[in-house]
Amino acid sequence: MLHSKERITEFIDKVLSTDEAFTIDDGDSSPDWYIQTKIGKSKFVYETKSYNGEDDARIPGFNAEFVAMVTDGKVYMGTPVSYFMSGCERPKNLVFIEEKAVAYQEEGEQMVDEFYKTLKPATIKESDSWRLKDIWKLARSCLMGLNTPEAIIRERLPEFLVSVSQAHALEAWRMDLKDIVDTHCKKKEADLAFERAREIQLREKMAEPDLVDPWEVESAKLLKGMDAKSIAVEFAKNGNIAVAKMEPEKLLTNLLERDYLNEWDFCVGKQGKQLLRTLVGVKSGEDGRLYCSDITRIVYRGKIVFERKGTT
After folding, report:
1. Confidence (pTM)
2. Per-residue pLDDT tens for 130-187?
3. By C-alpha distance, which of 185, 279, 189 is closest to 239?
4. Cα-flanking dihedrals φ and ψ of residue 132, to 5°?
5. Under a CB-based contact definition with an 8 Å cutoff, are residues 15 and 45 in contact?
6. What CA dihedral angle connects 256, 257, 262 and 268, to 10 degrees?
7. FRET partner for 268 with CA separation of 20 to 30 A, picked from 1, 20, 40, 222?
């Protein structure tokens, strides 16, 4: 096994200087054999524990493990070689195939994006409308600085992948990235068209007036950047004022969804229950529910970090 920089360097020198089988001593009782075969302009190198010539490959049970591909004077190798070379200066002829796969994937994603932009958005069927029920919340998250339309759509697009074996084929000029992208786009065209429709609806929703209030944007920015386990939140409702501790992330969720608060939304359930009893008691309707819009102050480490005027 090539488990050191020295042996990896020796391997690279040998595959670039000969097309014959060769050995590398790894310190065991017998050296490792490396056999090579040419396909087109590329060489593929395999490791085996014993080798007595080409006839070995015809023996049932003969086992050889793929190690590297050599093309245009470059040696393409993957894990565990990349692990053993970590922190070392890489030989100039060595290419980690996983890195090439990632590079091809990023290039391919850009090509998919270009195809996506030309797509006619799907017509949303009634049976699919449930898939868009979160448009309101997503639009609010963008306007509150918690997300972007681009990130939302990117997250939902069908994943485009380039495998290590495809990267080998691409580097050996036995495959074209455009063909991989075209196959992906054809297979996922319906899903891509649906996401195109989602993006249009999302941007239309974001353009609606009064979807978010300025104080919501201000408080969301504060909560998003807070590195705190808990904060003191002051509420005013029905002429009463009360304070209880909440986790910033939990408060941000309620803020985004404009959902009313329950006792379990607070750090201590009993504290939350008492706060709700003080502010809303047994009132019915909206007077009996507590929202983030009832917040007057947020205090962290004794300092007022957010305050709304005229809410009491």
Report:
1. 0.74
2. 989 999 999 999 999 999 999 999 999 999 999 999 999 998 888 999 999 999 999 9
3. 279
4. -115, 10
5. yes
6. -30
7. 222
